[in-house]
Amino acid sequence: MERKYPTHYELIQVLNMLHKSVLDEFAQSRGIFITKAGIPELASELAKQFFDNEDLEVIRSKAYHRSSSHALSGFTVKTKNKEFNLKSVYQGIFDSGIYQKLEQKLTAPVLVEPEKQVYKASLTYRKIRPGRIEFLQDETTSFEFQMEPLGDGSWQVEVDSNRSTDIKALQDLFKEGISNDYDIEELEQDLLTDSNSIDFFDRLSKHGMSDEYRFSDIKHLTLKRGTNNSSEDNEEGEKEVSGDELVGISQAVLEGKNLRENMFVQKSVESGYRFNAMTYEFEHIKSTKTLQLKAEFKGRPKVFEISILGGSENSEITLTKIPMELSAKESRYLRSVFWNKAKEIYLDILKTPFTKAMSFGPDVDNQPVVVANDLAEEIVTVTEKPAKGRGKKSQK
Question: Rounded CA gap, 240 and 366, in Å?
Answer without folding.
Answer: 42
